[in-house]
Fold these 2 entries.
Entry 1:
Amino acid sequence: MATYVGKSIKRKESFDSIQGKNTYIGDVEVPGMLHAAIHRSPHAHARVTRVDLSEALAQPGVVAAMSGQDVRRLSRPLAPFPFTRTKPYTSDYPRVRFADHYGLAVDRVRHVGEAVAVVVSEDRYAAADAAEAVRVEYEPLPPVVDVEAALERGTVRLYEEWPDNIQYEFRFSEGPVEELLEEAPVVIRERIVQHRYTGTPMEPRGVIASVDQRDNLLTLWSSTQVPHALPNLVLETLGRADLKIRVISPTMGGGFGIKWAFYPEEVLMPLLSLQLNRPVGWRESRSEHMVASHHSRAQVDHVEAGFDRAGRITALKTHVIVDLGAAYPSGGTSLAFVTANFIPGPYRVDNYATTSFGVVTNKTAAGPHRANGKAESNFIMERVMDRAALELGLGKDEIRRRNLIQPHEFPYTCVTGSTYDSGDYPACLRKALAEADYAGLLADRDRCRLEGRYRGVGLAFLLEPLSSLRPNAYNAGYETVTVRVDPVGKAWVFSGDVNMSMSHMTTLSQVVADELGVRFEDVQVFEGDSALVSASSGSYASRFSTVTISAAIKASRAVRTKILAIAAHSLRTHPEALECTGGMILGRDKPGVALTVKEVANIAYYSINQLPGNMDPGLHDTHYFINPNTSFEPDAKGRTSNFSTFPYAVNLAYVEVDVATGDTQILKYLTVDDSGNLLNPMIVDTQITGAISHGIGGAFLEELVYDEQGQLLSGTFADYLIPSMAEMPDLEIHHMVTPMPFTPGGFKGVGEIGAIGPPVVLASAIEDALAPLGVKIMSLPLKPENIWRAIHEKRGTGDKR
Amino acid sequence: MQRITLHTTINGKEFSFEVEPRLLLVDLIRDKAGLKGTHVGCDTGNCGACTVVMNGVTVKSCQVLAPRAGGADIRTVEGLARDGTLHPIQEAFWECDGLECGFCTPGMLMTTAAFLEENPHPSDQEIRRAYSGNLCRCTGYLNIIKAVKRAAETTG
């Protein structure tokens, strides 16, 4: 019986946050800690011919400095991530290459901001001064900036040991795609450009390393989303089999995927700490963050989609070219995999061929960012659907209705092999249209058109694959939770996750309290420490409520079974005759409290003579919950099923475009989300709202702009604009609930789908608004200047200001 | 490097510090006074995570040199709750779920403290304008608007 799950309970986490009492990485104080500062490359591509540390070392307070040559002498190249080895795949595709990058660049730099030298000082300000006193001589090389140019024959290669600039390659083909495209009465052919932007958590990164020589224990504090992967990665890179490593990820000021990587500083601080035998810490500044923490989203896509006269997709062909930046272990290759696999989205597509490249360029490494590859795949398919609707003279709603997977088809194996778990897509579309008064909006748009105002309705059906299974990777895809009831009857929960803003303490407490039958207040949650559980895939991709919550439910149920067995033995009855709620054990058919959980715990730990025969003392269980609804085993067509669950949403936007400035005003933004059962509706809605604000930033404001020399032009919050309160429209959030059939709680995941919507649905709305001008929107971002230019190119005014 | 002595009041408590003249106010508050609730999110004065109230007005403490705080009266997030009782602004943010990771929250709270003194009954539009210098990456702001209005009701 749910006392807590499904209720909008106030967040436990907030209590410390509103008093400024959280300990973030920048607040961690280790006695005797030295401060490191990093000298970074001003060049996008250059040979490093000389690094002179003498001036830096002469600065007051400086105790050490290192160049790339030093780091190469003392360690190995950064270990691959997220793969546990350099040959993770047994099949031909996907194919991945790795590059030897050390904690510092050795003889060549490959992006602006790449770490070249590190200095260590007693004082943080003095360390920053000393980093500026490092003298480096460079021989500039031609930079590879444009991702399509990077693929041209004979172009400069970033890694001379590779035959080209392709780091990752995925190919898939099912059905006679070419023939069907040739026969199709309507074929949509487009080139789509998606821009580079990123998550910019409010808290930049930070790393501190401290060595306990007695135990050969290295403690690493890092603002990381993967505290359980790091010990392996750091050990392998240091080549120090004698060390033990514990990683602590303190309260995180937002992650959004940006802290899901293996970063050079996570090796540099341990190296320095081992050398100096003192704790050494580094705190990233925002301007460092913009060049040293990974970017995301940039890709160029070519798509061909065949439709029959009834508007049904007959074949789909795509070529995805992801701009990965430099090949650091940032997990960026998954962008190419996820995008290419899920372009078919919520539609029935039986014939599909794709070639997906992850291409290196002289830019900051790309990696995951909230809705990794999914924001991109949805953008491609939804643009195609809108163009096809225009071509076929169908409504945006109608063309989608004719192609959506139907409710009776679930579980539905999609063309690339994953199994969509559950849903009712047509009902979600119906609900969105009804809630928004779609017909009314179209009528208003038409009225405004007559008055010469440019209003448009955007519609998008969004699908978010999540919780994936990956063999030979640190994010193998299961999650670990230990639930323990202590001798005084309180519940302790140890999770492999990281506390990065998603209210894990509150939601885990809700679930464990209900499953054990104890009070919410009596549950204590711990996470963000590799010492708590043995392994974890980390916090990312909205997978917490799919796998972590499921592991917590399973572990709680095992503990409750034991509690009831002990109680039944003590009361000379059967466990089935008892229930547990609020910390009290009650007879199902007799009123009154028979025993308390505290009394049972006392038996379990101390009065062990009262335990049922053969029962071990203690009340605890550890559960490893593997992604459900997935399979390693290739099916008859050689496909594997990698993703567990597929939340979906319909977004609808109504906008007005000012054709004089290209500026868009959002008049209405509505979403209907199906994320399965809702654990805490208040938290779900905050997640959706926050994610939509990320999407609005990506659609209108945020862009990592590089010039032809590979210089980042938007490297601070003064020119990389994230939405402020003034840019955030009011939202209408509605829900549909199709419980996830393959998890014990029926939850899916909700952290990312909001971030997918805005670029997709706002492009649709702006294109609709500008339909009288015939403007087509195939590129992001939707910045006023880009929309203005699109309008003027169409008008042919020749005015190219 | 040359050092100067400065006296300042933080959350009603008097402090004197020996500091380098180039020290930023945010580092004075965090490292010298040991009040870690004020955060650094951007270094350029854009994000507002370091917002504190100095002599009754909000300042971005990463843009102020510590010597300017000589003789000043500074309020930080640690000064909001009194004797273990949360300030109504804190209660409102909690109640309305006006935060997630909490990194921007101290700045949001201090902006609210100064803003509601100036404008005890703000409209949505006034709130949206007043907070454009405080960035939040988690909440999407709508619950913060609710929280500010709730705080206005409970403090007004």
Note: The first strand of chain A starts at residue 34 and ends at 40.
Entry 2:
Amino acid sequence: MMDTPFNAVVPMLCVVFAALAVMMAEAFRGRDEQMALGGLGIVGLVGAAVSSMLLWNRNASSFGVIVADNFGLFVTMTLVIVGVLTIMFSSVVVRRDGLPAGEYYALVLFAVVGMIMMATANDLLVIFIALEILSLAVYVLTGIRRDDPRATEAAFKYFLLGAFSSAFFLYGIAFTYGVSGSTRLDRIGAFLAAQSMSDSPLILVAIGMLLVGFAFKISAVPFHMWTPDAYEGAPAVVTGFMSTGVKAAAFAAFTRVFLSAFEPFSVDWAPMIWILAVATMILGTVVGVAQTNVKRMLAYSSIAHGGYLLVGLIAANDVGKAAILFYLLAYAVTNVAAFGVIALLGTRDAANDELRDFSGLWHGRPALAALMTVCLLSLGGLPPTAGFIGKWYIFSAAVSAGYYGLAIIGVLTSVVSVFFYLRVVVMMYMEERDPGLAAPAHVGGVGMVALVASIVVIFYLGVLPTRVLDLAAESISTIF
Amino acid sequence: MLLTLSWLVPLVGALLLLLVGNADGRRDGMIRWLALGVSLIAFAVTLGVWAAFDPASAEFQFVERHSWIPQFGIDYFVGIDGISLLLVVLTGFLTPIALLSSWGSIERKVKEFSIFILALEAAMVGVFISLDLFLFYVFWDAMLIPMYFLIGIWGYDRRVYAAIKFMLYTMAGSVLMLVAILGMAYLHSAATGSYTFDLLKLYSLDIAPQTQMWFFLAFTLAFAIKVPLFPFHTWLPDAHVQAPTAGSVILAGVLLKMGTYGLLRFSFPLFPEAAAYFAPWLALLAVIGIIYGALVAMVQPDMKKLVAYSSVSHLGFVVLGICAMNTQGMQGAVYQMLAHGVSTGGLFLMVGMLSDRRHTRLIAEFGGLKTVMPQFTAAFLIMTLASIGLPGLNGFVGEFLIMLGAFRWAPAFAVAAGLGVILSAVYMLWMFQRVFYGPVTHEANETLTDLQPREWAGVLPLCAMALVMGVFPTIFLKPMEASVDALVLRMQATQTVQVEIPVDRRPDDERRLTTVTERVARR
């Protein structure tokens, strides 16, 4: 590959072109013509994956604000996987629910573009632009079922709180610029390291503002209020997408900003994040126990998973950074698949996402129940699944940094979380099918392929994680 | 390779069964035979391991080591010594019996049932052979999943509650152990520069006494819940009573031993100073468990619950033997683990048979079965006496050695534990009397069928084993001698730092004493 200033943006461009192609195709589509628009998107995503692989270890940089270092590329690969799985699940849902295919796929792809940009951005302003690109797309996706009042409400809530948090974020950027005279992360980091201004209130305000902005996006407690409503109201497949993609992108940027630019101030921000992490883990699991809607339950579970990821951030050592990457991948695959099952079980008129809708699923759809069980066990962190290795990695980071208390809180909350994951398993396996319920939807084709592929990945990461652990370790060696 | 086969065979068998199409239950019969065949092959493999085992060596044998996650020094590292050898064989021995017991009682979802039992066997064997803490933890936690489904799907009416309680209780203990495991790996890396989860390397790690205390507590909590040690036992009666017969047999026969095995293999040798400090307290809990379990067992109206509480009592003996930290105590503990697996496994099996026939397990519902089911009564009597610890049967040897060891360490504990032996005779014989003697009080009992050939196939090996273990204990004591000696030496070597050990407590002399006890036992 030639070295041009555009190298680092190639993965993003692949997805952008795919999104544009989808929009064009939709425009020229005949009224009843069937088009594989999702396939077009997958082609673009695969292009992004291939170009990411080619860029591996090259540390390409475009215009000084987008860097395709291994860290960003690893997250890009995670996002590509999320995107591909989402499109595969969506292909079933879009047809079934009569969603506008062109707009839907284009929005998914643009959201992925924003996510990739966020993961590879090296400038606070570019991170902000990326945040807005992905947020706008996701707001619309949340409310894409316009006839559903719950979805509209969710989209509106999400939009209001998201705009609110963007304001915080922007303020943080402004303050940072005011202190350091730059929005580039490397320059901020160099400036802060050179100056001893640990007691300057201005920089602490800047850090605090940015922290709030990120905390909103990763739905850390107490900035999580929008999450359960947005996740419950959105179509399940979109929820799966945003609970993983948005979180992965936001965490990548969060890690990059706080562990490179603001590293010199870790003494100041680590205790703040410590509190956030503990509150997030505890509230996410404890409130999750009380839920009867599976989507809402998984929303709280994803809040809790954000807490575990924060543990890696606090540990702030090499193990912790690599653990964040691995955990993001493991969590992303598992969560997309879990929401995929919910999406596939729904029908056009009924979401079928209450706990009792899963009763006796084993008898009617044994394969689907088994796949869902694997996802839930992985989310609960039981071996031999990806979730176990992820948790183990995160907590070993905490222990090696001396945060025993954090590790203990983390493992205990994960036991509590197992309780509510098991409730779904109990419903599926140990209850008879509620006679008032319709037979579960038949699942086949692309949706099943995507599910089986996710399960294979979950077991692969759980049993033979060596290769991916290596990649994660390589990813953090180039930066920070 | 042989050792890897011993857990791989059941796992591969389970995966193969997964491929057999059986949506309408037409192939139930074939699946039962297939599962039984797989478990018998696995048993043969474990016997092969025993045959090739060198009893003179205290080293780990059949050691296999492959790099698994090299970044963290995690290996696929397995091996057995005299302590784990017989537990592996016990697992191989009980699984076919458990499968056989399900032939009469499990009618629906036979395929899934067989898969879970085989997966469970794989995980249990894995726990006993792992020499890498990470690998151990993986098996330890993975084992929960099949057991959870076995209780939750095929159990009795309160099965869901029992299954979740079992899972959460065990996990709550084991996750703290995970933190301690990570802490040890970190300490090793701080001391030597590299992570490792290798048990043998961690044995030689020097840990500060204060840290030892915390790590010891984290490990021991996990094991104490599994054993279960008073006051962590409340999951056990629920899980046992609600589990299907096959589940109870494996739960009592093997699963509980994972806790005491963990104490022997991990808690005590990894943190010897902390162990010496906490041993009296653990022993106190064990003795409370012995007496409490026996007293509660006495008043149970439900036979299965009675046997479950008797397990609390019997496992208390094992922990007491371990805490004594001398050769007799430790040997007795391992022996009692095996003996309890056979006799309590047998009791659960036969209570399950009664329950299949009458769909009740209440003692009051029975009476006078001796005239109706003479063969069954005879077999049940053997198991009852074995459980009480009658000389000549398996329970005696272990309890005797444990009491001897405990007496030499702290006579007060031995005296209190002796009370437990008497109480066990009370509750077991009283139950036996009410169920089998007297007139037949319920009409439904008059037509009960005696043991069928298929049921004999499960009961007979257990009765034979109870007798063999009672009469020829040397067969089973011999392989563990060297390993137990090494363990005791290791424990006492660290203790000499604190207290001077009298000359007569050296293992060499204890060896002679054990021979005496064997002679007593043989009589």
Note: Chain A has a mean pLDDT of 89.
